Design the sequence.
């Protein structure tokens, strides 16, 4: 029975966050009202407050949930191409750019911009999200491509994260094209020292 109650509570929490996300994505965090979130899910405000004691707590939970989803997607992109550094970077960056294009919370996290009041109080936490993404990518690269010089690897990871954030703010090309350009830059940086080699990009069928 305790496990069942915990499952129900988890489902309720996700439904509440989904309802809050819809409002934040459509109208901004300033327009989020706890009563609206409770009404959208069909629960009392007391039930909502038992899960999230404040509007800020809702915002924090949304921030953490979207960050986790973003990091999982990045890792899946890397995992799909562990034998090809260029393709792995392209997949991970492409996923992030596409996600940020449709997810204002991810965009705010990675660029420190709270457009139209969107989670403006949370944008100070974007530095932590930025550092988390960088640390995760660096640890992954060290394990997947150990022959890359550590200094070059660190520079390449930093370039990948910063260039991705820059392209989110000022998108001048499609996510696919931007991802290809960033991947090419990252591979060049990664191979700037040391004796690592990276397979050439796969030929595109005519």
Sequence:
């Amino acid at each position: 029975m305790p496990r069942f109650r915990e499952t129900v509570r988890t489902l309720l929490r996700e439904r509440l966050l989904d309802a809050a996300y819809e409002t934040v994505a459509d109208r901004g965090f300033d327009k989020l009202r706890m009563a609206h979130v409770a009404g959208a899910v069909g629960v009392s405000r007391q039930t909502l407050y038992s899960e999230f004691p404040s509007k800020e707590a809702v915002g924090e939970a949304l921030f953490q949930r979207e960050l986790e989803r973003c990091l999982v997607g990045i890792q899946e992109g890397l995992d799909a191409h562990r034998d090809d550094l260029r393709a792995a970077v392209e997949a991970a960056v492409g996923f992030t750019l596409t996600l940020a294009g449709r997810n204002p919370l991810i965009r705010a996290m990675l660029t420190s911009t709270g457009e139209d009041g969107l989670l403006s109080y949370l944008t100070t936490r974007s530095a932590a999200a930025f550092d988390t993404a960088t640390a995760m990518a660096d640890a992954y690269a060290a394990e997947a491509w150990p022959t890359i010089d550590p200094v070059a690897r660190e520079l390449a990871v930093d370039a990948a994260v910063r260039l991705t954030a820059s392209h989110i703010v000022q998108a001048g090309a499609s996510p696919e094209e931007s991802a290809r350009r960033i991947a090419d830059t990252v591979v060049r940086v990664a191979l700037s020292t040391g004796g690592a080699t990276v397979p050439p990009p796969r030929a595109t069928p005519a």
About this structure: Residues 156 and 186 are 5 Å apart (CA to CA). DSSP finds nine helices and no strands in the chain.
